[in-house]
Amino acid sequence: MAKLESQPLSAEERAELEELRAEKARREAQEEARREREELAALRAERAKAEEAAAKPAPTAPKPQPKKVARSKSVEPKPSRDEMTFAQRMVTSKEPTGENEIPGMAPAQKIIIVLALIAFVIFMGYTILTSMGLL
User: Fold this and answer.
1) Is the dihedral of CA 46, 47, 48, 52 positive or negative?
2) pTM exceeds cut of 0.90
3) What is the SS3 assignment for 57?
4) Distance (Å) of CA 15 to CA 12, 19, 20, 73
5) What is the pLDDT along the chain (135 residues), one digit of tens a residue?
6) DSSP of 69-94, one letter per residue?
7) Phi, psi (5° rounding) for residue 83?
8) Distance between CA 127 and CA 135 in Å, rounded?
């Protein structure tokens, strides 16, 4: 391979190379002309739309839209914790008593966190004991 690279091109090879280069240049010129035609067609279509929009008479003053009346939604008072079902009590948090107080977690959320921590501790214990060869 190195022997072929060091030898100069023959006249036949040079002619073939020039022919290939000319073919490549012709393809690139055709592609460029095609892109320019597409761009020209798009610009003409855009101009035609703009002229069409300008030719249409300006619309009369728009009709005033009726303003939406802010209706107060009928908010049902929250039932007291004694009136709630077990499921409602599990998924709702207690309302904060103070102004800047953060509402507490719902009991179901606390249970999920505790179960996740227990599972994590068991997993870590199993992993450590297995790596030590005790299990």
Assistant:
1) positive
2) no
3) coil
4) 5, 6, 9, 86
5) 456 677 888 999 999 999 999 999 999 999 999 999 999 999 999 999 988 888 876 666 666 666 665 555 666 677 777 788 888 888 888 777 777 888 788 888 899 999 999 999 999 999 999 999 887
6) P-PPP-PPPPPPTTTS-HHHHHHSPP
7) -85, -10
8) 9
